[in-house]
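Section 5.1 Outputs to date
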Amino acid sequence: MDYKSLDADRKEFRLLRLRSRSYQPPPSQEESELKGINVFCELEHAFRGDCDSYTALSYAWGDMNINNLQPVFVSGAIIKVSFNLGAALRELRNEQNDLLLWVDQICIDQNNIAEREEQVQQMQEIYTMSARVVAWIGPAADDSDMIIAHLTSIGERAEKVWNMHLFGRVYEAAIQHAFMEVLPILADRKALGIMSKASTKFLQREYWKRLWIIQEFAVAPRVDVLCGGQLIRDTTLTTALNCILSVIYYLEDHGVKGTGHNLATSGHTIIEAYMPILSASKFVREVTSRRSDYRKSKFISRENTLFHNVVSTSVTRDNTGNHECTDPRDRIFAVLGLALDAVCFDKFPDYRSSVENVYTELAMKLLKNGPIDILAYCVRTEPRSMQSWVPDWRMAGLEPNSYSPWRNNLAFLASGRKKFEGDVNFITGRMLSIKTAVVDTVMAFGDVWSPDRRGKLDPEATLRYLSEIRGFCAQSERTKSDEVDSNTSKIAIANFERAGHSEYSLDFELKSYQQVRTTFTGGGDHTTDSSNGVRFDNFTRYCNLMRRLRPCRPFISATGYVGLAPPHVETGDKVVVFLGGLVPYIIHPSGPDTHTLVGEAYVHGVMFGEHMEGNPKIETLILE
């Protein structure tokens, strides 16, 4: 199909007029050409801000194999679209009236890179100005009609009480009122078994995992979620999921016996049936919560920047995966419309630049104007296709051991409280010039600590990990003999308690560490019991904190600093603090005057600016 060019200066775009089910094609059209085609459309040119009301479609393109493409009739020509889009268009047809749509696969000339870049840049506005967004989940399957009806029933009942503050008796009342009318269904074990499977399949559909839909979902004035012929409002879906999860948490925390709660009699059944939703709804809850966050944001903050949006959609705390995109450059471009500082990235989107160039351009801009600790997201790979200081967002990254740099309660401040400006520059060959305080060099290191983030800790590996840290602490002249265990207990979890919580408790770390050692050596008997009103006791909590760490190695420096380094650390690597950085880093000498970044580190005795208090020598190092 031939596309007529768009006038970008006038914010021109195309809309798709989807003909009704009763539409009959012109009699002049050859019958043989239209055989098997039941979707008829017309492309119309319009101007954003001055056009008829339209619906924007949000969907996953799906399989683009030529054998699975679907024919549709558009403005006198037959074109092929993805199977999923074809199904959406067939379902969206009204019986008698046309529907005006914006559909990227058809409304953008996908073969025109310049137009594609311009239209992608305007997608946030296109979705914002629509009358509504239809989120097409896919054709009906796996009892999806039943689960949508069930979630609608829960959500509509819960919406009446779920907006109040849920604390104490009010929390119980909200659960009581929201589920009073569906308790008989919830207590039916057979029905719950079917519902649980249907919920999991619905919540794990490809749509929810696609990166692009986050922006489309977030900026819409209204979102209707459509699966087959069944529709549910996004607010109803969100409320239903929050309500179900709150009930599970409530029953876990308070137990299911002796509470006097009406749900107690069916509590075990509910937990068993709906527990799979906790993990299955991960992507759905991320998408819906991002919509809520976006609508609340009215000013630029650390949590509304492009950096935050890229990190939060590319980095995970567990191994459940991240939102997917076909083009790696869309790790940046797909969330650009959510960033309130998007105007600072005037070169994006640019589909003519390589992935490496896009990622490098982003890193240069962020390092020049934003946090130094973007470097914490650099993970060494072999072979290296980019500079060591450029994060590769293609990798399914795990959250740094130093935690997210925008966390308000983060206490790490390795470079001290002094503000530094103009400390980053770029020189020929995309070398990074950065002001640095060298702390020490790596003298020795232990085995890689890389536990299963969702499974149980291996006792042998855990004891070896703790033993290596303890051995380094005992060897260090910086550690007093009566501080070996307490320092070990902090280092083993990267001092999470002090860094992440205002109510710092040394007792928690030390006692939990000692309990882990005792239990894993067979000298203790530990069981968890959620009926006492606590979902996780300190033993379980401490194990979870060890489990959340990125792969790392215990290490000791030449002068006795003990900490956690990246897996690729080598003897002789430098431990440094970059001015303005929250955490220390490990760098590797790569030439007479150059270094490569190995990665972030936890270094006990450096994390809170202790090294900088002695006015150390500041030098400019070059990272390649």
